[in-house]
Amino acid sequence: MVEIADGVHWVGAVDWDIRDFHGYITHRGTTYNSYLVVGDRVALVDGVKSRFYEEWVRHIEEYVGLGEIDYLVSNHAEPDHSGTIARLHREAPQAEIVASPRGKATLEKYYGALPVTTIKERPTLDLGGKTLSFVEVPMAHWPDSMVSYIPEDRVLLSNDAFGQHLASSQRFDDQVDQGVLWQEATAYYANILMPLRAAVRRALKQLEGVPVEVIAPSHGVVWRGSPGAIVEGYSKWVDGYSQPKVVVAYDTMWGSTRELAYAIAEGVAQGGVDCRVYCLRETHRSDVVTEVLEAKAVLVGSPALNNHVYPTVAGFLAYLRGLKPYGKLGAAFGSLGWSGGAVRFVEEQLKLGGLELLEGAPQCSFKPTAEEWREAYEFGLGVARRVLEDSGT
After folding, report:
1. What is the dihedral of CA 262, 263, 264, 269, to 10 degrees?
2. Which residues form the catalytic set?
3. CATH number assigned to the domain with residue range 2-238, chosen from the 4 options 3.60.15.10, 1.20.1250.20, 3.40.50.300, 2.30.42.60
4. Sequence-ordered list of residues with C-beta below 8 angstroms from that of 226, at least 6 positions apart, any chain
5. Largest CA distance in the chain
6. How many other C-beta atoms lie within 10 A of the C-beta of residue 293?
7. What is the pLDDT of residues 156-204, one digit of tens each?
8. Residue 92 exposure: Cα atoms within 13 Å on the Cβ side
9. Contacts 24+ apart (CB under 8 A), 198-202
């Protein structure tokens, strides 16, 4: 039994096993958070993933019977939050479902006809001693997204914003390892919310002046110890904050592109800039993207295969392009045999992803010579200089 505030309870589910979430590797599982708000009347905010229905109901019934629920609020209709709503409504038909107008349409698309009241009709719920007010935050994360706020307790039920994919026996930020917490909060923003920075910025603007002491997201732990810190983190990420850091992501067939990657990295490091190197066959693209979030430059290397790019590199580029990293420098490098095409394709994809291309990136035929190794090293030195200039260092 977990109390977020007086009369506000966590009744979600912990998913210890999940390791893939929309192609994003969730090393530490996740939670599906649902909140019970109890005044004279009772509101249940958000559901959980469908296979956790029994666990969810068991947690709810620690406080109230299903027949006592007056309102069922859906902040977001994605199935990891709404997958249990239709079934609960069959067992508790007296509960009035409340969602945004787009949420109503999406719920009906997923689950058929449901009696949904929109927040245009009910912008607030007076529960008697507790109030729930609703604010639409479209595209932070889906068009239907909204948040719920309890002014009496200064609690923000933020749905996907400020979340983390983190399964834990603890429910609060001040109870878990801070390094792990921030790693997962950063990974969550980088892999889910990075392309939605404009919408997230608008949502943050709506929060200005609203007293918030607790932020309760729909994944991970609840921020009660440092809610201001995660808001500050989001504020800098939407503004394109970066450190003097370079990420080198590559794959290789016979080691030639690896030699270039290592030579570039050595040059970057010699130039006084932190550099992280990842082979895309060994490191998942979502982990690389987490490093990209606060990096200033992303250098992508590929050997040529059938006049085209290497498959692992193509997958990374598709993922990166969709996330639209903001304010980054980029470059393509690689080796070729009797045919090319890979470096050109990488450059095209980086440009389409919004990165500013750096000139002079190395490309070699077969194994790099000593001179070509030196050119790659010198390119790395040049990247370091540019990163330091752009960082004002």
Report:
1. 80
2. 22, 76, 78, 80, 141, 160, 188, 219
3. 3.60.15.10
4. 173, 174
5. 78
6. 22
7. 999 999 999 999 999 999 999 999 999 999 999 999 999 999 999 999 9
8. 22
9. 198/139, 198/238, 199/137, 199/138, 199/139, 199/140, 200/140, 200/161, 200/234, 200/238, 201/238, 201/239, 202/137, 202/140
Between CA 162 and CA 188 the distance in angstroms is 8
Residue 31 has a CB neighbour count (10 Å cut-off) of 26
Spatial separation of the C-alpha atoms in residues 77 and 386, rounded to whole Å: 44
The position carrying tokens 């750096």 is 358
Question: Residues 353, 359, 361, CA angle at the centre, nearest 5°?
Answer: 90
Domain boundaries, the chain: 2-238, 246-387
pLDDT tens digits, 261-275: 999 999 999 999 999
Amino acid at 34: S
> Phi, psi at residue 93, to the nearest 5°?
-65, -15
Instruction: Pull the structure tokens for residue 140.
Output: 């932070």
* Coil vs helix vs strand at 369: coil
- Tally the residues of the chain: 393
CB atoms closer than 10 angstroms to residue 186? 17
CATH number of 246-387: 3.40.50.360
Query: Are 218 and 32 spatial neighbours (Cβ–Cβ below 8 Å)?
Result: yes
Choose among 346, 355, 296, 320: nearest CA to 23.
320
In one letter, which amino acid is 275?
A: C
Q: For residue 156, give every residue at least 6 positions away whose Cβ sits within 8 Å of its Cβ, in sequence order, or none.
A: 147, 148, 149, 150, 207, 210, 212, 214, 215, 216, 227
Contacts of 22 (CB under 8 A, 6+ apart): 192
- Note the pLDDT tens digit of each residue in 262-313: 999 999 999 999 999 999 999 999 999 999 999 999 999 999 998 899 999 9
Residue type, 238: V
Predicted local confidence at residue 145, as pLDDT: 97
Same-fold call for 2-238 versus 246-387 = no
Q: At what angle do helices 197-207 and 227-238 cross, to 10 degrees?
A: 140
